[in-house]
Amino acid sequence: MGSGKSSVGRLLSQSLSYSFIDLDNWIAASEGVTISKLFLKKGELYFRKKEASSLSTILSENNNLVLSTGGGTPCYGTVMDDLNQTNEVVTIYLKNDLETLTQRLFKEKDTRPLISHLESEVAVNDFIRKHLFERSYYYNQADVILDCTDKTPREIVEKIIVTLF
To answer: Residue 63's pLDDT band (boundaries 50, 70, 90)?
Structure first.
């Protein structure tokens, strides 16, 4: 969350002339409701199941695709294993430092259902620290891990292209 997946994904897809899908936007469109409302109405477990099934559908129907997932996507069930075992899928972890993530997410907290209730920058920082600790096992299984701290989306895209090609 807040690492720049959507921005970088969009730029990368343009650079490669690939299609781009943001998984959260795809789910919101298929459900006819925002992710925030989906969380409120049906809960996180429903969302995670929908995320996993949507991911499977998207990957089976698309080639030459850059897909931006949510931060929790690889941590649910067997999603990360499934991604890493799928031919022609390259997983990339856009790693940012805690301070960068805190600053970005505190500004956006009202649009993010998992942190919208947090009232201070310290609380957001604590939330991020806890989730990075819990999720690092999955994130560190990515095929490519890029340090994105203090990098622009364009610089990150260039690093990805150099790394992959």
So the answer is: confident
